[in-house]
Write a structure and sequence with these properties.
GO molecular function: protein serine/threonine phosphatase activity
Largest sheet: 6 strands, antiparallel
Order of helices and strands: EHEHEHEHEHEEEEHHEEEEEEEHHE
Distance between the termini: 82 Å
InterPro entries: Bact_Sigma-Reg (IPR052016), CheY-like_superfamily (IPR011006), PPM-type-like_dom_sf (IPR036457), PPM-type_phosphatase-like_dom (IPR001932), Sig_transdc_resp-reg_receiver (IPR001789)
Number of strands: 17
Number of helices: 9
Keywords: Hydrolase, Phosphoprotein
Organism: Paenibacillus enshidis
Shape: elongated
Radius of gyration: 31 Å
Enzyme class: hydrolase
Oligomer: single chain
């Protein structure tokens, strides 16, 4: 523990040093002015931007009355720097003016002692301040570890998302923006052979750590489920079975996820899909007409078994499909129908994938905190080609 004494009176410094020495606090330094204190704290030139770095000072005993700059002003300056705010400052004063003491506390001082120094009082206040500093440091280190782990988890979560596909008859791209470090949206696509592709977008209830963990569980079983069962009905029912194996029935919160899953056959120009409680996908034709993929069954995980009915649509080529999570609609005021119409109105103008333009239009929009949610947009471009009979 390193203690900094700031006092322009050498006698006061000697007295405090001796008291600390007898209590086995030997790592003590002193400064005779606020300017000298700033040097110890790395604030020599406050006209330039300070690069934050941890200070080795654990406690400051600051004289209230000093020439050039008094302790109250010096304390308020220290409080301007985020990396120095947690250093406890105890004012040392001969002034009994309650207004001045209140000013000192308002400026950021933690406590005060009066002159002449009472050893018992000084040490009691120092021990309390250092104990609180240790607790704050412990919490900061723990929070930093958690943040580092969350960043690593976010990198892992990002790594399971499928990269873009640009095949002759099919292009798939995605934009994804979690509302927190971890998120509950997941998209994946898999080539199935013979020009067929499986595409899924899901949105776990809620967001944050719990939703991301459930999302990662689904990611771990998704490829095996899709490549084994392929058909939309069977895949959704198998995901429902796997999710219910987690045995979440005793939880206070009912976890589930919505999903839209489709198998695209680029040779037959056919799409089979299931919408499990998800916002309707949008299929934009050559002429700009929009069809909604909104034939739905129950979300996955709500019930032990769900009835699933797949829908089939055919296309000619040059159509686009937009799949999205409901967070994409949150920036739009109004009810669900108004939000959907807004999305249709803006997406129908895009003939090709335009990442920067789409990001600016849908992802860089300020949303009230109470409506902020994970945002995801999957864009599928269906290309023209010879269909098989």
């Amino acid at each position: 523990m390193r203690i900094l004494i700031v006092d322009d009176n050498p006698t006061n410094v000697i007295i405090i040093r001796e008291i600390l020495k007898k209590e086995n606090y030997r790592n003590v330094v002193s400064a005779t002015s606020a300017a000298e204190m700033f040097k110890y704290l790395g604030l020599e030139d406050r006209s330039v931007e300070i690069r934050p770095h941890p200070s080795d000072i654990d406690l400051i005993l600051l004289d209230m009355m000093m020439p050039e700059m008094d302790g109250i002003e010096a304390c308020s300056i220290v409080q301007e720097y985020e990396h120095l705010k947690d250093i406890p400052i105890i004012m040392v004063t001969a002034v009994g003016d309650s207004k001045k003491l209140a000013e000192a506390l308002d400026a950021g001082a933690m406590d005060y002692v009066t002159k002449p120094i009472n050893k018992v009082e000084l040490m009691a206040r120092i021990r309390l301040a250092l104990r609180l500093k240790q607790e704050k440091d412990w919490h900061k280190e723990r929070d930093q570890r958690i943040q580092d782990e969350l960043k690593l988890a976010a990198m892992v979560q990002q790594a399971v998302l499928s990269p873009a596909i640009e095949d002759p008859l099919l292009h798939i791209h995605a934009l994804y923006q979690p509302s927190f470090e971890l998120a509950g949206d997941l998209y994946s696509w898999y080539p199935l052979g013979d020009g067929r592709y499986a595409v899924i977008l899901l949105d776990m209830m809620g967001h944050g750590i719990s939703s991301s963990l459930f999302c990662m569980f689904i990611a771990s079983v998704l490829k095996d489920t899709v490549t084994t069962y392929v058909d939309p009905e069977k895949v959704i029912q198998e995901l429902n079975r796997r999710f219910n194996q987690l045995d979440l029935g005793k939880q206070l919160v009912q976890y589930y996820f919505t999903a839209i899953y489709m198998v695209i056959d680029t040779r037959m120009k056919r799409i089979d899909y299931v919408n499990a409680g998800h916002p309707p996908g949008l299929m934009i034709g050559k002429d700009g007409n929009v069809a909604t993929l909104d034939s739905v069954c129950y979300p996955v995980g709500l019930f032990d078994k769900i009835e699933v009915q797949a829908e089939t649509i055919h296309y000619e080529g040059s159509e686009r499909i937009a799949l999205y999570t409901d967070g994409l609609l949150e920036a739009v005021e109004g009810d669900h129908e108004q939000q959907l119409q807004y999305l249709i109105h803006h997406l129908r103008d895009y003939r090709e994938w335009e990442e920067d333009v789409m990001r600016k239009a849908f992802f860089e929009v300020e949303v009230p905190l109470d409506r902020d949610d994970d945002k995801c947009l999957v864009w599928i471009s269906l290309k023209e080609g010879e269909a098989l009979a």
